[in-house]
Amino acid sequence: MQKTTIAIYPSILSGDFGALAAEAKRIEAAGADAIHIDIMDGHFVPNLTLGPRAVLAIRKATSLFLDVHIMIYNPYDFVEAFVSAGADRITFHFEATEDVDDTLQFIRRCGKQAGLAFRPETSFSMIPKYLEKCDLILLMTVSPGFGGQNFMPEVVEKIRLTREYCDRHGIGQGGIIKKGMTLAPFDIQVDGGINRETAPICVQAGANILVSGSYLFHQPDLKRAIEGLRQ
Ligand code: DX5
Ligand code: ZN
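^ Those are the sequences you sent over. The predicted structure of the assembly is below.
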């Protein structure tokens, strides 16, 4: 397996909604690996944020990878809209649909990466059967719905168990690692309350993609803050 590199995805939820295009350019200039865009429907989570037109506006402003996290019921029905808007990966919630397999397959058939997200209270036991059917597992480290919440340390064990399972079963990016192959490590993303204190805890447990909103956007220098988190 290759050495794990840590990717930093600023969550534009904490950016200036009056200037999404400018924020996207600022995130790109600051050296981020992708932009994380939170979509909330007011039902699956008690908050409303952006929709496909906002994703399209961000798409036009940057060539960065767009990581779209949809916290909505019936995610299948919205896949096409976010694909057309320019999402590179669509991550939906395990708890939001009965059609997890169909939705993962549909996203992949659209030529995009499919991510599967788990609320903090959802047990690790739900995760293994999806590892070979998706491109990323998102382990929420807060209750989805709002930026600026406190990191939930009880999720750390789930990160550890997920990484351990991938290592034990030879699961890397794109599937099972066969003898002689070098596959990058499977993507395990964390989202919620990620800052200088909590990032190393997650990385040590096995996360390789860190989403951060309020911490990054409250720093005076976004570029330095991203570099700091990556350490
Ligand atoms: C919360 C969202 C997060 C949010 C994280 O439901 O999924 O992406 O932006 O924000 P912070 O880093 O402030 O917890
Ligand atoms: Zn998110």
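Residues 11, 36, 38, 69, 191, 211 surround zinc ion (ligand 2) (CB under 6 Å). Helices lie at 20-29, 52-61, 79-85, 100-109, 156-168, 198-205, 214-217, 222-230.

Shout if you want it in another format.
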